[in-house]
Amino acid sequence: MGFFSPSYHGLCKKGIQALESGDVDGASELFLKAMRIDPSQPRAFGWLGYCYVAAGTHFGLSGEETSKREYLELALKAFDEAIVRESDAELKADFWWQKGACLRLLGREDSATLQEADKVIPGYTEKRKQQNLDWLEQSMREQADRRDN
Predict the structure, then answer these.
(1) Of 48, 76, 83, 97, which has the fewest Cβ atoms less than 10 A away?
(2) d(CA 10, CA 76)
(3) 1 is a domain residue
């Protein structure tokens, strides 16, 4: 690797920044580059899964069901790769959670994935459900505040 070659972690950091700014394509490319540098690391696979979920959700909202399904299937594969590589319990449980969310978006309810998340961290799925409800409630409050102002 050359002196100015990007590192695995540097590419992942830039990928996360790109994803957070809404550049899903750019983020995906950065995570794919990171995976080529070190395919044994789990994080780029997980973040790539998040990119694919974002793309699948976008296509779903646009009514493009075929593209939605293709990207969600790619997300499932990425999360599977992340799960087998990840040693951090919180991240591994989240990758299982995300895999379950993808399956639900594809209309293939699979409680086994949520059970796997709870095997890694007992009570993880209930915690995530509550976080989602809290986020939804906060979003609704913010919308109401904007309407009132």
Answers:
(1) 76
(2) 25
(3) no
